[in-house]
Amino acid sequence: MTSVVYHAFSQKEAKELDVQHSGAQRAEAFVRAFLKRSMPRMSQQALEDHLQRKAVVLEYFTHRKQKEKRKKSKGLSAKQRRELRLFDIKPEQQRYSLFLPLHELWKQYIRDLCNGLKPDTQPQMIQAKLLKADLHGAIVSVTKSKCPSYVGVTGILLQETKHVFKIITKEDRLKD
């Protein structure tokens, strides 16, 4: 069955199809010519020596193409964040009781911050540390405001932006 599927071309068929028989001598001649072109500085004796050992490293090789570095995706712009309303607190999440654990975390943070201070520390140092402290989770009271309806509001500070504090009151109202 294999003779039906595979058989060598006759010389007439090979000539008609422009196919050449690849004999051992023709292959060896090709390898020698290829090595001579690839390594022109190597002597004929050295080439023969390489062919006997069967390990050939060509002198001229092409460098692999470097893979393009993937560009890091940039974050969203401020306009996109506003449009997506990423920093808005949903009405169902505007409950004072949800943010009491945040206040407990803030109290622990302030305790740790103040424990680093020694009793004989200068007041300016204490003031500088407290000014740099993060206020998210602190219970704050508004004493001055351009809007008189905000004066006297007390609650947990949720968000702090450039010009706005968002505070949740005990009545579950979000003031900003």
Automatic annotation (TrEMBL):
InterPro entries: RNase_P/MRP_Rpp29-subunit, RNase_P/MRP_Rpp29_sf, Rof/RNase_P-like, Rpp29/RNP1
Subcellular location: Nucleus
Coiled coil: none
Entry's Gene Ontology BP terms: rRNA processing; tRNA 5'-leader removal
Pfam families: RNase_P-MRP_p29
Domain of life: Eukaryota
One GO MF term: ribonuclease P RNA binding
GO cellular component: nucleus; ribonuclease MRP complex; ribonuclease P complex
Described function: Component of ribonuclease P, a ribonucleoprotein complex that generates mature tRNA molecules by cleaving their 5'-ends.
Subunit structure: Component of nuclear RNase P and RNase MRP ribonucleoproteins. RNase P consists of a catalytic RNA moiety and 10 different protein chains; POP1, POP4, POP5, POP7, RPP14, RPP21, RPP25, RPP30, RPP38 and RPP40. Within the RNase P complex, POP1, POP7 and RPP25 form the 'finger' subcomplex, POP5, RPP14, RPP40 and homodimeric RPP30 form the 'palm' subcomplex, and RPP21, POP4 and RPP38 form the 'wrist' subcomplex. All subunits of the RNase P complex interact with the catalytic RNA. Several subunits of RNase P are also part of the RNase MRP complex.
Family according to the record: Belongs to the eukaryotic/archaeal RNase P protein component 1 family.
Protein name as annotated: Ribonuclease P protein subunit p29
